[in-house]
Amino acid sequence: MALLLVLWACALLAVLLGGYAAVTHTEAVLARYQLAHARAHYAAEAGLMRALRGLHDPDAARRWVGDGRLYTLRFGDAELRIRAVDEAGKVDLNSASPQVLQGLFRAAGMAAQEAQALATRVVAWRTRPEIEGTADDGADYAAAGRHYAPRHGPFASIEELQMVLGVTPALYRTLAPHLTLWSGQPGPDPNVATSLALAAIPGMTPSRMQEIIAARQRNAADPALAVGVGVTHSVRSQATLADGTRAVLRATIRWQAARIGGTPYTVLRWQEGDQE
Length: 276
What we know:
Elements: H1 2-55, E1 67-75, E2 78-86, E3 91-92, H2 98-107, H3 112-126, H4 139-143, H5 169-175, E4 179-180, H6 195-200, H7 206-219, E5 232-240, E6 246-255, E7 265-272
Parallel strand pairs: 3-4
Antiparallel strand pairs: 1-2, 2-5, 5-6, 6-7
Helix pairs in contact: 2-3
Pfam family, one: T2SSK_1st
InterPro entries: GspK, GspK_central_sf, T2SSK_SAM-like_1st
Protein name: Type II secretion system protein GspK
């Protein structure tokens, strides 16, 4: 009996020690993962700050260009891949003219009549009625099974466009990289416009687009020749450690160096990862 009790006790201790070892190993793996992820995250933040400095470098020859080109550098043991896009080169949901909106939707593949109808809905969504109480009550939205009516006020986020009747998930994914809320312009700047935004400019022809793209490519090698240095940029910073741990930060940042007693920039939008 004594021998059986000793054997059972040894077996129980072995089970307990095995479980403890497994828990300890799992916690150690999680701790290493969290440490690596934190290092990658802060490396990506360093990339954002480096982009902000590069985009507004006083030396034009060293200044970064906000046309979406790739900049690579190292930060400690992390490889940084950074892209910046000038918000002036996008279509502003709150200030773009109906013609620009229609051109954008057509460039995204919509038929002319559908693009015109969607542009009208976008303008209606963001526009307050001139006389109180005369706003569209959203009958079309109710008929489509939506449980809300148009805001009749400025878009609060780019994602809000998905609520406008006629915007499908596929269409939104196509449009999102070319939209902004922060340019305040009726149309995109052709000198820094993204592909779809450039096609959305009224009167833009394929030959004119080719001329603009060719001129931008000729000047691409020399930052001093770049036209259109804006103050608001969307930056994507990706940091990859030697062990493969990766972190992605996306931010829209407005430069305001003349501000007294405050930071030289304002973060308008902050997202972690590549999911919209």
